[in-house]
Amino acid sequence: MKKLFFMLVFGVFVYAQTQIPTVNLSLSAPNEPQELVNTLNVVIVMTLLVLAPSLILVMTSFTRIVIVFAFLRTALGTQQTPPAQVLVSLALILTFFIMEPTARKAYEEGISPYIEKQISYEVAFERGVKPFKEFMLQNTREKDLALFYRIRGIENPNSVDDVPLTTLIPAFLISELKTAFQIGFLLYLPFLVIDMVVSSILMAMGMMMLPPVMISLPFKILVFVLVDGFNLLVGNLVAGFR
User: Fold this and answer.
1) What is the pLDDT of residue 18?
2) Which helix (H) or strand (E) segment is 64 a member of?
3) For 96, how many CA atoms within 13 A lie in the half-sphere containing its CB?
4) How far is 215 from 228, CA to CA, in rounded Å?
5) Measured between alpha carbons, how far is 19 from 188 in angstroms, rounded to an integer?
6) Residue 130 in contact with residue 109, Cβ under 8 Å?
7) Phi and psi at residue 155, in whole multiples of 5°?
8) What was the pLDDT predicted at 147?
C-alpha cells in the first residue's frame, strides 16, 4: 500500500524531470542487480497505471463531486444530458484543482528531497502521505473514523501520523458518501417543488393523460439556467473542502 501510493505521486510529479528507462523484453538474466531493480520499477509503474483510478476515487474529492453531479442530472430529469463522460471529466478537473495544493505539498516535502537523495524512502513516504492524511482527516467525520477504530480494536491516535491509511480511507469514503447524499437531497427539493406544481396544475385542468415530466422539464432547466446553477454548485462544492 505504501509503495503503491508513493510511486503514484512520484510518477505524477517527476515524469517530466526524469528519463524514461529503456525496457528490455528479452528473457536473458540480468548482468547486474541494478538491471533487475530497474525492470521491477517499470513493472510497478505499469501496475500503478491500472491502480491510479482507484487511488483517485478513495483519497481525493472525486467521490463527492461525481455523486453530486449524478444527483443533479437525476433531479433535472434530463436522462443522458449532460453525458456521463462530461460529468466525470468535470469531476476529474475539479478534483485536480482541489487537490493541487495537497499534491504540491506532498511533492515538495517528500518526493523532491527523496529525488535529491536527502532522505530515505521511508521518511519520504511519511512526509509525502501526511498532506493527504490531513486532507482526508479534515473532511472525515469523527464518528466515522471512530467506527473503524472500534472495529479494529485499536487505541485512538495522538496525531495525524498515528492514523493508518487502512483505517482512514474507509472512514473518509463513508463520510464523503454521506455528504454527497445530503447535497443531493438539497438539490432535489426545488425541482421536486416544480414537479408537484406542474402535476397539480395538470390535474386541475383535467390533463391526466399528459406526463407531468414533459411539462416540468423545460421549467426546471429554465430555473437552473436563470440561477446559474453550475456556477453555484461548483463554487459551493469546491468551498466545501477544507
Assistant:
1) 45
2) helix 62-76
3) 8
4) 21
5) 50
6) yes
7) -75, 155
8) 86
Residue linked to cell 391526466: 208
Residue 189 grid cell: 427539493
**Long-range interactions of 211-215: CB distance < 8 A, separation 24+:** 213/77
> Phi/psi of residue 19, each to 5°?
-90, 140
- Residue 79: DSSP 8-state: T
C-alpha cell at 103: 499534491
Residues 134-145 as b/e (b if ≥16 CB within 10 A, e otherwise) read ebbbebbeeebb
C-alpha cell at 47: 501496475
Is residue 212 within 8 A of residue 198, CB to CB? The reply is yes
Q: Which amino acid is at 101?
A: P
Q: What is the CA radius of gyration of the chain?
A: 24
> Is 123:141 a contact under the CB 8 Å cutoff?
no
Instruction: Kindly give the confidence (pLDDT) of every residue in the chain, 242 residues in length, as a single tens digit, with 9 standing for 90 and above.
Output: 555 444 544 444 444 444 445 545 454 544 555 554 556 666 666 776 677 677 777 888 888 999 999 888 888 888 777 888 888 888 888 988 888 888 888 888 887 887 777 877 778 778 888 888 888 888 888 888 888 888 888 777 777 777 888 888 889 999 999 999 999 899 888 888 888 888 887 777 777 676 777 777 888 888 888 888 888 888 888 888 86
Helices 165-204 & 121-138, crossing angle to 10 degrees? 30
Indicate the pTM of the whole model.
Answer: 0.73
Q: Where are the beta strands (DSSP E) in the chain?
A: none
How big is the chain, counted in residues? 242
CA distance 60 to 12: 15
Strand, helix or coil for residue 228: coil
